[in-house]
Design goal:
Blueprint (H helix, E strand, L loop, with lengths): L2 E5 L4 H12 L3 E8 L13 H16 L3 E5 L1 H17 L6 H20 L4 E3 L4 E6 L5 E6 L16 H5 L1 E2 L7 H10 L21 H6 L7 E5 L18 H8 L10 E6 L22 E7 L4 E6 L7 E8 L3 E3 L11 E7 L7 E8 L2 E11 L6 E6 L2 E7 L2
Parallel strand pairs: 1-2, 1-4, 2-3, 4-7, 8-11
Antiparallel strand pairs: 5-6, 6-18, 8-9, 10-11, 12-16, 13-18, 14-15, 14-17, 15-16, 17-18
Helix pairs in contact: 1-2, 1-6, 3-4
């Protein structure tokens, strides 16, 4: 009998994943990850992990499976929290959920599971795994059947080795079906709301969280008028116009003289491109959005309205060392291109784009302008319903 360790989070999805695996005849063990108890940095006044841990235990008892808690807080602080602070300090906006999957759930946690004798690790993610039969077997990361819950984006940094040891039991189901299975089997998590917080931690008020390590520093907010920004409208011809691609991928560089000072802030590193809340500037015809931050000069640049040209770009760049192929056999060689569907954030509808491989990285050139392309976030690209690669936006 194959042994599977399920990451029981205390939510309905992982609860049903454990139930389904047991029904399929696997030897199932429930493992809860405790990822935070650092009193020097307060995540939240609430303690959601305690409630989640109790719910996970109750589900395990109901299913008649062994259960234990593993403390991964040291690794989580080093690999996720410290990384977050470092990225914000640099003026980038990290995605801790993508990193948590790559670094914690499918690395540290997976190694613990394998040490327990597991053949597989399973989670409650809404995605699917495919297998292509060839000499070595190639694994596919496929989007979940529920288009409203597809979580493949969050797993965009997984490797072939990680996928080979992973199962996604709820990936073929719709969310209402998952809740129905939980209710029919009297699982305590059947009606529990989905968590909205940081991966396996809970609710986080990000500005307060960041202020504990990144000290407030008063600076100015500059409003830049739409006509102060110029972009190339040329569609690049890859054969001889790489410079235009490079230009399209670059963010415009702003100066104080490009606009007028309209307010003050407490630290440019607290803000991200596309942000609207927290500026506390009134009196404009349309809402102000952050179009750029300069953490060195501690200036926030803003523009009025969602259609401000400072928010819109066609092309982004990913450096070679931050480029990842879930399917290494599909990796582009220098000067190769491929048409894909891509997204730059979770739940964004997939957008047509062309990948252009160059020596020092990869250009992702979208057919239509994208709003708030943000450094530090992940771009992911698909062929049909398969996520084949991703990278950190530069």
């Amino acid at each position: 009998m194959k042994k599977v360790v399920v990451g029981l989070s205390g939510g309905v999805d992982s609860s049903v994943a454990a139930y389904l695996l047991k029904e399929q005849g696997y030897d199932v063990i429930g493992l809860f990850m405790k990822n935070w108890h650092d009193d020097s940095v307060t995540i939240s006044e609430e303690c959601p992990w305690l409630e989640d841990s109790n719910d996970a235990l109750i589900v395990a008892e109901k299913l008649g499976i062994p259960f234990q808690t593993v403390d991964l807080s040291v690794e989580y602080k080093e690999r996720i929290v410290d990384y977050m602070f470092n990225e914000y300090e640099r003026g980038r906006t990290p995605n801790p959920d993508v990193l948590c999957n790559r670094e914690i759930k499918f690395d540290v946690f997976m190694k613990i599971a394998l040490q327990l004798g597991a053949d597989y690790v399973a989670t409650g993610h809404y995605c699917r795994k495919g297998t292509i039969q060839n000499e070595d077997e190639t694994y596919q990361l496929l989007s979940g059947k529920d288009p409203n819950k597809d979580q493949s984006y969050f797993l965009c940094q997984l490797s072939q080795e990680q996928l080979s040891k992973t199962l996604f039991p709820v990936g073929e189901l719709l969310k209402p079906e998952v809740r129905k299975i939980a209710a029919e089997n009297n699982l305590i998590t059947a009606d529990k709301k989905d968590s909205q917080g940081l991966c396996f931690i809970g609710k986080v008020h990000l500005p307060e969280f960041l202020q504990q390590k990144l000290k407030p520093k008063k600076g100015i907010i500059v409003e830049v008028p739409s006509n102060a920004i110029q972009f190339s409208a040329v569609v690049p011809d890859f054969q001889n116009e790489r410079e235009k691609l490079t230009f399209r991928a670059e963010k415009p560089v702003y100066n104080e003289s490009d606009g007028k000072v309209v307010g003050e802030h407490q630290g440019a590193h607290y803000f991200t491109i596309g942000q609207r809340k927290g500026l506390n500037v009134g009196g404009t015809k349309e809402p102000l959005f952050v179009i750029d931050t300069d953490v060195d000069k501690n200036i926030i640049y803003t523009g009025q309205g969602k259609a401000h040209p400072g928010l819109l770009r066609n092309t982004l760049f990913i450096k070679e060392d931050e480029l990842h192929w879930v399917r290494p056999d599909l990796a582009l060689k220098v000067d190769e291109t491929i048409e894909v569907m891509a997204r730059i954030r979770y739940r964004q509808p997939l957008q047509p784009a062309t990948l252009y491989k160059v020596e020092n990285g990869l250009f992702v050139d979208f057919k239509d302008k994208q709003s708030a392309i943000t450094e530090g976030q992940f771009a992911a690209w698909y062929l049909d319903d398969e996520l084949v690669g991703s990278g950190v936006i530069s």
